[in-house]
Design brief:
Layout lengths: L1 E7 L3 E8 L14 E6 L7 E7 L4 E6 L4 H13 L14 E6 L10 E2 L2 H9 L7 H15 L4 E6 L9 H4 L6 H4 L9 H15 L7 E7 L3 E7 L2 E5 L20 H8 L6 H10 L2 H6 L5 H9 L3 H25 L4 E5 H6 L1 H9 L10 H5 L5 E2 L8 E4 L4 H15 L2
Parallel strand pairs: 1-6, 6-8, 9-12, 12-14
Antiparallel strand pairs: 1-2, 2-3, 3-4, 4-5, 7-8, 9-10, 10-11, 13-14
This protein binds adenosine-5'-diphosphate.
Adenosine-5'-diphosphate binds next to helix 10 and helix 12.
């Protein structure tokens, strides 16, 4: 089965083509046979394209457009023609899987895209104003050029859609519940992938495991996973809740927002900008949203960078404690995404707070670029895993499962 995965960012588009042969899903994630990344955030009106194939072909291009439909059409053309060709025509693709950020309360599983699904994605754009419209553009672009291809929506919220009410409902007025103001949670595809992968690495049945998965990238979230399902998570109604992030604040006292909005020169748009782009590591350090630069600045003796790191770690420990209480115990703590996979000092600092439980990491293993391994000491009471997240592969697997079910 040939599966094209489209993963849309606000000014970026990733596309991967996977080929899964055989009657069962492979134990290890496959590498895509074709991979394209496009970014149009650097120069207005221009898209930078980078394509590579499993056979080692690489191509970089710049095209004069920032229209997502045109970019997707161009990428498919590069898949079917020229030096990066891997198929003869798009009709060889069996299914196109889209990462769709918000599925609301209606979509708890991946679905084949119909007119009703498209309408729901459009309606839910009020909850994900940057992402859902971009996802819809991708769906429509495929439809316009290759109308007959089956398309599947894989929702980032779906993995968290079974949160118990006590974890999902905010203690505001009850009307909020009726208005759909509740905790949805995000990064679900990554948390789901890491949960499956953790079970495989540990050689255990996922249904018997209590996990805390820490997705620490530019955006950061935790999930408490029990019996293979998320039962608590730190992101909420929007991806602003919870942990301190690269440039997002995470949870802050809502009274601060009221206080700021009462200032004469303040506006909702300014508050939106401040909380999403001028807070977090960037806001506190005044240097960068990138943990590597924070680390550099600390080595140079920068005290605001040190403060940013200290808050980041404090918040991480605080929320791991919360997830631990929701789970009532812990078999494995999992670190993933840019920071989680590459910052040993963050893993060590976060883990240290739970030493009293008997959780111990092996510092040698922790600092030797671990990928998909257990870095806990043999006598640790809790396993600690570092997992390279593979969201696109998880989307491909969801498409495969859905199509095989309907066979
Ligand atoms: P996104 O959340 O946008 O998908 P990633 O998961 O790739 O992004 O995470 C990007 C972040 O990971 C960077 O901003 C940086 O803070 C962090 N990061 C990447 N590499 C390293 C590294 N070697 N050491 C520490 N942090 C890193």
């Amino acid at each position: 089965m040939k599966i094209l995965v489209l993963n849309a960012g606000s000014s970026s588009q990733k596309s991967c083509l996977y080929e899964i042969t055989g009657e069962t899903l492979p134990e290890e994630p496959l590498k895509p046979i074709w991979e394209g990344k496009v970014d149009w955030s650097h120069e207005q009106g221009f898209a930078e394209i980078e394509v590579k194939t499993a056979k080692g072909e690489k191509l970089q291009e710049k095209i004069p457009t920032d229209s997502r439909p045109r970019i997707i059409a161009h990428m498919l053309d590069m898949m079917c023609n020229g030096s990066t060709q891997v198929i003869s025509q798009p009709s060889e693709i069996d299914v196109v899987g889209h990462r769709v950020v918000h599925g609301g309360q209606e979509y708890r599983e991946s679905v084949v895209i119909t007119e009703d699904v498209k309408k729901a994605i459009a309606r839910l754009a009020s909850l994900a104003p940057t992402h859902n419209p971009a996802n819809l553009e991708g769906i429509k672009a495929i439809e316009k050029h290759w109308g007959s291809l089956t398309q599947v929506a894989v929702f980032d919220t779906a993995f968290h859609s079974h949160l118990p009410d006590a974890a999902a409902i905010y203690p505001g007025p009850y009307e909020w519940v009726e208005q759909g103001i509740r905790r949805y949670g995000f990064h679900g595809i990554s948390h789901q992938y890491c949960s499956h992968r953790a079970a495989r690495i540990l050689g255990r049945d996922l249904a018997s495991l209590r996990l805390i998965t820490c997705h620490l990238g530019n955006g950061c979230s935790l999930a408490a996973v029990k019996n293979g399902r998320s039962i608590d998570t730190t992101m909420g109604f929007t991806p602003l809740d919870g942990l301190m992030m690269g440039s997002r604040s995470g949870a802050v006292d809502p009274g601060i927002l009221i206080h700021l909005l009462r200032q004469p020169d303040y506006s909702v748009d300014k508050l939106d900008y401040v909380l999403n782009h001028a807070s977090g590591l960037h806001g506190i350090s005044g240097i960068s949203n990138d943990m590597r630069q924070i680390r550099e600045a600390i080595l140079q003796g920068n005290s605001r960078a040190q403060l940013a790191l200290d808050i980041y770690v404090h918040r991480l420990q605080f929320y791991i404690g919360g997830m631990l209480a929701s789970l009532g115990g812990l078999d494995a703590l999992v670190f993933t995404a840019g920071v989680g996979e590459n910052a040993p000092e963050i893993r060590a600092a976060a883990s240290e707070a739970f030493g009293f439980l008997g959780l111990k990491i092996d510092h040698e293993k922790n600092t030797h670029k671990p990928v998909d391994v257990d870095i806990a000491t043999p006598d640790s009471t809790v396993r600690v895993l570092v997992i390279h997240t593979e969201e696109d592969w998880e989307i491909a697997c969801e498409c495969w499962r859905l199509l095989k079910q309907s066979d």
